[in-house]
Amino acid sequence: FQILEIIIFCILLYFYKIKAVKHIVVLLMMVALLASLTVIAVKAVASMIILSAKGKMQLTYPVFYIMIVLMATSCAFQVKFLNQAMHLYEAKAVVPINFAFFTTSAIISGVVFYQEFQSAALLSVFMFLFGCLLSFLGVFVIARNKKEEHLQIHFIDCGHIPGQKFTGKIQPDSHSSHYGTLNNEDNSVK
């Protein structure tokens, strides 16, 4: 399963970097695939630390440090691609799609890699999936397209503020005797 994720990620990265496809789904699918790697690495590191605390030393194995590096790099690139998506698209589009993709990828990676549903009862699996569906439905309801409200407040043009006094120059003349000093109100009116 992880090999399939890596292949899909490489294909998406090819379209993103080489073909310059900057679609929101491409960016957030890469974020979700990196998130699934992060979930697997975090769970592995946490399990190894817990086992080490219980007396079965796991910190001497190289896989522990490989998982820490995988966790850190996948988090860093996940944030990088998410920031790029936030710069290209509005938050009201990025956040719900990212939530749905991230949650789905985390669930699928946990189910496949750690076989979390293998010994679970059918009712527990159904309730978990039903909870995910309700969560996705809630995100959809919150993020659905609403009509943009236009402000009825008229803004004042800064160039036409009533009662504002203007001087002829923005920058004082460097050859003037007043250069480097504050203008006196009487001098600026003259």
TrEMBL record:
Pfam families, A to Z: Mg_trans_NIPA
Primary localization: membrane
Topology of the protein relative to the lipid bilayer: Multi-pass membrane protein
Domain of life according to the entry: Eukaryota
Regions crossing the membrane: 24-51, 63-82, 94-114, 120-143
GO molecular function: magnesium ion transmembrane transporter activity
InterPro entries: Mg_trans_NIPA
GO cellular component, one term: membrane
Subcellular compartments: Membrane
Start-end of Polar residues biased regions: 173-190
Region (Disordered), start-end ranges: 170-190
UniProt keyword annotations, A-Z: Membrane, Transmembrane, Transmembrane helix
Family: Belongs to the NIPA family.
Protein name in the entry: NIPA-like 2
Organism in which the protein naturally occurs: Phaethon lepturus (White-tailed tropicbird)
